[in-house]
Amino acid sequence: MSESSTASVRAWLAAPMNPDVAEAIERLRRAPDVQQIAVMPDVHLASDVCVGVVFATSSLIYPQAVGGDIGCGMLAVALDVETRALNVRVAGQVLGDLGSAVPARRRNRNAIVPQPAGDQLSHASLESVRRNEGGLEFATVGSGNHFVELQADEEGRLWLMVHSGSRALGQAIRDHHLDRAQQVSGHLRAVDGQSEAGVAYLHDVRIARCWADASRRAIAEEVGRVLASRMGARICWQTLITTDHNHVSRERHASRDLWVHRKGAMPARLGESGVLPGSMGTFSFHVEGRGCEEALCSSAHGAGRLLSRTEARARISERELRREMDGIWFDARLAGRLRDEAPSAYKNIRSVLRAQGELVKVTRTLRPVLNYKGT
């Protein structure tokens, strides 16, 4: 393993950094082979490595800096109808249909999951998860901050946005490879990217990212069928934008080939399209990367949490959530269980955008119309 380093750190902050976050980033800065760190404005505390952090290494790979929801990301695509097509009656029907078309957790039977021929995961136990849990969870949205949302752009056109990840498969891959990684600094574990263990991890990450991307597309297709049935809408696939924000990839920066780890941060190379969600009650944005090398060509992946889930449940009442969601269709029966996802539990998305003006530019602004979340 490489010796400890003292990496350069650059931060784009929407508010003063939480002391616990600052301490976590300082620990990461001193970890072996960490060359450069970029802190995004949606940064918040998480186990081992904070969400909203990007860093580069020359040889070591840190699975904890990708996390368990490998390939978690966003999909956005336009519909061929205007927002006014979604009235009270249709909205209720759509919300009712989505509960069965896009379950939160599991389907009633294993789905056929697209996978390149002969592309097997590195261990039989992981293949078992892919076949079993992976089949049951494919095209399910998950819980927490994952969602399906219908949004209106500036011209009143309706768009679909999907946020989901690799579910149990990504967690199994993380846990399997962490067990085989070497402890290098505090609780952090790493593998050499050129070792057998490193090659196996990277192989499995690629499959998890493909799984998550295919799952989001399948969710969009299921939503498309609901919208076609209830309002005659059609998905315009030529408008598709898709990106993920939990991954590690080999990239060239400042004439060096580096392993870039993104945990809750999306790539934002020059001209690259991205999707920046707010919260379930606030605006979202389509953006285009500016290719900022100091940020390792990265961007925030959303508003970022202001309150932990425990704090949000303690501070935000069901009545407050309903008030914050005024004018947006959602399943109000779930309001009590969605308090930790209330808009006020998140940072101001416009503050995040202002903080990272040199990282991306906004190409489209969207307001939420209908939000579907699992619990």
Please outline the helices and strands.
Blueprint: E1 8-11, H1 19-29, E2 34-44, E3 51-57, E4 60-61, E5 73-82, H2 88-101, H3 124-131, H4 133-137, E6 147-152, E7 157-164, H5 167-178, E8 182-185, E9 188-192, H6 196-231, E10 235-244, E11 246-253, E12 256-263, E13 265-267, E14 273-276, E15 284-289, E16 298-300, H7 309-315, H8 318-324, H9 349-355, E17 360-372
Helix pairs in contact: 2-6, 5-6
Attribute tags:
375 residues, alpha+beta, tRNA-splicing ligase RtcB, 7-stranded antiparallel β-sheet, 5-stranded mixed β-sheet
Write up this protein.
- This protein is α+β, with helices and mostly antiparallel strands.
- The model has no long low-confidence stretch (mean pLDDT 94).
- The protein is globular, with a radius of gyration of 20 Å.
- It has one domain (8-306, 346-372): tRNA-splicing ligase RtcB (Alpha-Beta Complex), CATH 3.90.1860.10.
- Helix 2 runs antiparallel to helix 6 (196-231).
- It has helices at residues 19-29, 88-101, 124-131, 133-137, 167-178, 196-231, 309-315, 318-324, 349-355; strands spanning 8-11, 34-44, 51-57, 60-61, 73-82, 147-152, 157-164, 182-185, 188-192, 235-244, 246-253, 256-263, 265-267, 273-276, 284-289, 298-300, 360-372.
- A seven-stranded antiparallel beta sheet has the order 10-5-7-6-17-15-14. A five-stranded mixed beta sheet has the order 1-2-3-12-11. A three-stranded antiparallel beta sheet has the order 4-9-8, with helices on one face.
- The longest helix has 36 residues, at 196-231.
- Helix content is 29%, strand content 30%.
